[in-house]
């Protein structure tokens, strides 16, 4: 899709018979991808070293697979003009519950996966019902959801726990070797680049959501409902069910994200996924999803996560190692993208381009 | 005639929900343990005769929340969104306050100077959020997300990465008790502030203008109200409230910890607005509702502490209670309840009744 849209952009620039104007979604996506590429190439030229190492690039995925998954859920909810800030709390709750289940109840891997998905789905169902059918403001519902999940995490266990289950640890240490790319070690031998299984799950989810948003009736309904729920209702779309399902999917993704987090760290802690909801919202915004709804793409969200994390790597590489610099620069980056979006949208509104 | 009656009915039902919720919390405590309400007169460490008891600690502890709930109501009304950076802004204001205090010998004028400096800084940060909202038309929650992410680190940076303490009897006058007066000073501050705000809303058009911007921005502009100014003003008032809340909190505990000062208060403030029956989508507001909402949240917290629930687990119970209150207050549920009642009693009952 981006290639077709890029061609569109190109033809517009040259001035040869402008075709249909590029949509807001595609324009914001293009900006995000360009910004990410520019940032990464800049980092490769200036700092080289780690940024040239394919493994470090893949580590962005390895460390943030869970963030990609929950950001996908948030993108879906945000396209339908909702918001879900409970995801971080749900991730923490799931890691803790699964660890307790595996350790104290000697549960099986399959059981823990079902548990994770079940918790995510349940919270999604309840939140979706309250928002869509009882018409309570999504911010309040999911805020309560976050409080509930975080509180429940400390009720389940107030001390951090680690998994010692052998089958789980084997699963956790499993790595997929990416053929063809890698780096040379200090002794000159070739070290192939590796990715964690969580990354594959995350990428499958991105692909699935992209297909869903692009080609299914439900995906199109999401954009319609987010654009204007009144118009969507007039078109005969079941607005309530669409909103409800968006929260259910977001809850399910929080469940998957929680399990991916557990696969990465192997520990349950009430401080897990701290501020993950903010990072997920930030990633979606950077990726071109508007909180007003109706505009957004999941590929953009993927690039949003990558931009956010690359930027913090750049901040560390440039010598600002104190942790507070990361937050300040994340804020600045968010500020930049929010302003950029608002200017573009205002300009397009003025020109009357959808 | 008909219109004024309608508004009356609306305002009635708006305060009905928070009052009902407060009533529920009180009744629950009456049945749980009647001694919850007892108030003692004790002598504290400084030798003052002071009031103590759960009720006092509820009203005292809710002071910061009440301030932020008032300001949040105004911001919600004018901008149709909420500022989620109040906790971070309070950390910045508190850090500036402490920085100025530590730079000088603590006397009464220095305290006022520190307060004024913190106030200016907080108003500037408020204006930053306000400018994003008013000029760039960004939703407040997104605009304040920036400061929410960067605010506490900035507070950390202001005091050079430490958690400095300030110790002075003058500060404890603000944070706990003034000798000779048995009521905690934060309660008195809130009382004075509440009277000032009530007077301001009664004798100026501020409240009316802010509401009209929230209800219909275009119509407000056509009537000669400057929506941008009103939104900026709401954020400036928020800055003032945030400073007072931050300063009270610093005086209360005698130090500033940028990570934990007024943590999660933005959530509580927004909930106070919602429980107070104010629409989070802006427009008409009732300050009394938000203030009662703030006291409900604090009462709930203290009740849970009294039931020996651990401080981290309190959140989960709070969430359940809040959802219950919001569900009861939701128009859809009320409509169903009224229909059910009509079917049972075969007599139309007005929507203004509870449930």
Walk me through this protein's architecture.
The complex is a heterodimer of chains A (354) and B (355). Chain A is mostly helical and 354 residues long. Chain A has a domain at 62-175 and 191-298. Chain A has helices spanning 2-14, 24-46, 49-52, 54-79, 87-103, 109-133, 138-156, 166-173, 197-215, 217-227, 229-234, 239-265, 276-286, 298-317, 323-351; strands at residues 161-162, 176-184, 190-195, 267-268. In chain A, strand 2 (176-184) and strand 3 form a beta hairpin. The longest helix of chain A is centred in the C-terminal third of the chain and has 29 residues, at 323-351. In chain A, 48% of the residues are buried. Chain B has a single domain, classed as ABC transporter involved in vitamin B12 uptake, BtuC. Chain B has a two-stranded antiparallel sheet. The longest helix of chain B is centred in the N-terminal third of the chain and has 31 residues, at 2-32. Chain B starts with a helix and ends in a 10-residue tail after the last helix. The model of chain B has no long low-confidence stretch (mean pLDDT 85). Chains A and B meet through helix 7, helix 13 and helix 15 of A and helix 6, helix 12, helix 14 and helix 15 of B.
SSE diagram, text form:
The complex is a heterodimer of chains A (354) and B (355).
Chain A: H1 2-14, H2 24-46, H3 49-52, H4 54-79, H5 87-103, H6 109-133, H7 138-156, E1 161-162, H8 166-173, E2 176-184, E3 190-195, H9 197-215, H10 217-227, H11 229-234, H12 239-265, E4 267-268, H13 276-286, H14 298-317, H15 323-351
Antiparallel strand pairs in A: 1-4, 2-3
Chain B: H1 2-32, E1 39-43, E2 49-53, H2 54-61, H3 63-79, H4 86-103, H5 108-134, H6 140-158, H7 169-175, H8 185-203, H9 206-215, H10 217-222, H11 227-253, H12 265-275, H13 287-306, H14 314-329, H15 331-345
Antiparallel strand pairs in B: 1-2
Helix pairs in contact in B: 1-13, 2-13, 3-8, 3-9, 3-11, 3-12, 3-13, 4-5, 4-6, 4-11, 5-6, 5-11, 7-11, 9-11, 12-13
């Amino acid at each position: 899709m981006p290639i077709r849209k890029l061609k569109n952009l190109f033809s517009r620039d040259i001035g040869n018979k402008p075709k249909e104007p590029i949509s807001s979604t595609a324009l914001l996506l293009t900006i995000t991808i360009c910004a990410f590429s520019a940032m990464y190439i800049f980092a490769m030229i200036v700092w080289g070293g780690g940024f040239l190492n394919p493994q470090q690039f893949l580590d962005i995925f390895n460390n943030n697979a869970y963030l990609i998954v929950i950001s996908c859920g948030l993108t879906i909810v945000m396209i339908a003009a909702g918001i879900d800030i409970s995801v971080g709390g749900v991730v923490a709750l799931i890691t803790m519950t699964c660890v307790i289940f595996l350790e104290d109840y000697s549960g099986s891997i399959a059981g823990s996966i079902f548990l994770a998905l079940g918790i995510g789905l349940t919270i999604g169902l309840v939140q979706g019902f309250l928002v869509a059918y009882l018409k309570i403001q999504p911010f309040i519902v999911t805020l309560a959801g976050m409080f509930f999940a975080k509180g429940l995490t400390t009720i389940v266990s107030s001390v951090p726990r680690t998994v010692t289950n052998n089958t789980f640890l084997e699963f956790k240490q499993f790595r997929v070797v990416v053929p063809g790319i890698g780096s040379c070690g200090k002794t000159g031998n070739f070290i192939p680049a590796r990715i964690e299984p969580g990354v594959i799950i995350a990428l499958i989810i991105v692909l699935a959501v992209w297909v869903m948003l692009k080609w299914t009736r439900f995906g199109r309904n999401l954009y319609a409902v987010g654009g204007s729920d009144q118009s969507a209702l007039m078109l005969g779309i079941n607005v309530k069910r669409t909103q409800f399902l968006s929260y259910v999917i977001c809850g399910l993704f929080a469940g998957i994200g929680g399990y991916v987090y557990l696969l990465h760290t192997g520990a349950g802690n009430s401080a897990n996924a701290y501020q993950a909801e903010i990072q997920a919202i930030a990633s979606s915004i950077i990726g071109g999803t508007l909180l007003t709804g109706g505009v957004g793409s999941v590929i953009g969200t993927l690039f949003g996560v990558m931009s956010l994390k690359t930027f913090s790597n750049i901040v560390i590489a440039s010598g600002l190692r104190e942790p507070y610099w990361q937050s300040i620069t994340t804020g600045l980056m968010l500020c930049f993208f929010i302003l950029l979006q608002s200017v573009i949208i205002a300009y397009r509104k003025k020109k009357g381009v959808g | 005639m008909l219109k004024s009656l309608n508004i009356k009915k609306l305002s009635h039902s708006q305060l009905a929900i928070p009052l009902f919720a407060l009533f529920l919390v009180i009744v629950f405590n009456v049945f749980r343990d009647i001694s919850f309400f007892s108030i003692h007169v004790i002598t504290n460490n400084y030798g003052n005769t002071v009031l103590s008891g759960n009720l006092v600690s509820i009203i005292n502890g809710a002071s910061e929340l009440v301030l932020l709930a008032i300001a949040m109501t105004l911001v919600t009304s004018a901008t149709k969104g909420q500022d989620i950076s109040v906790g971070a802004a309070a950390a910045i204001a508190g850090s500036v306050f402490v920085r100025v205090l530590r730079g000088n010998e603590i006397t009464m004028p220095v305290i006022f100077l520190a307060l004024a400096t913190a106030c200016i800084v907080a108003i500037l940060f408020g204006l930053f959020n306000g400018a994003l909202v008013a000029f760039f038309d960004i939703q407040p929650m997104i605009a304040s997300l920036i400061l929410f992410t960067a605010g506490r680190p900035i507070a950390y940076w202001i005091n050079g990465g430490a958690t400095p303490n300030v110790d002075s009897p003058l500060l404890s006058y603000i944070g706990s008790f003034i000798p000779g007066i048995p009521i905690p000073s934060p309660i008195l501050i809130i009382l004075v502030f509440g009277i000032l705000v009530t007077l301001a809303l009664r004798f100026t058009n501020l409240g009316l203008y802010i509401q009209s911007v929230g209800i219909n921005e275009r119509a407000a502009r056509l009537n000669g109200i400057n929506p941008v100014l009103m939104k900026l003003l709401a954020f400036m008032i928020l800055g003032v409230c945030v400073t007072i809340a931050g300063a009270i909190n610093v005086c209360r505990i005698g130090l500033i910890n940028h990570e934990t000062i007024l943590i999660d208060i933005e959530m509580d403030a927004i909930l106070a607005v919602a429980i107070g029956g104010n629409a989070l989508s802006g427009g008409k507001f009732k300050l009394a509702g938000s203030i009662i909402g703030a006291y409900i949240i604090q009462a709930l917290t203290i009740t849970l502490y009294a039931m020996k629930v651990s401080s981290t687990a309190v959140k989960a119970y709070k969430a359940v209670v809040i959802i219950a209150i919001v569900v009861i207050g939701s128009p859809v549920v009320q409509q169903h309840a009224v229909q059910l009642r009509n079917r049972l009693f075969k007599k139309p009952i007005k929507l203004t009744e509870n449930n």
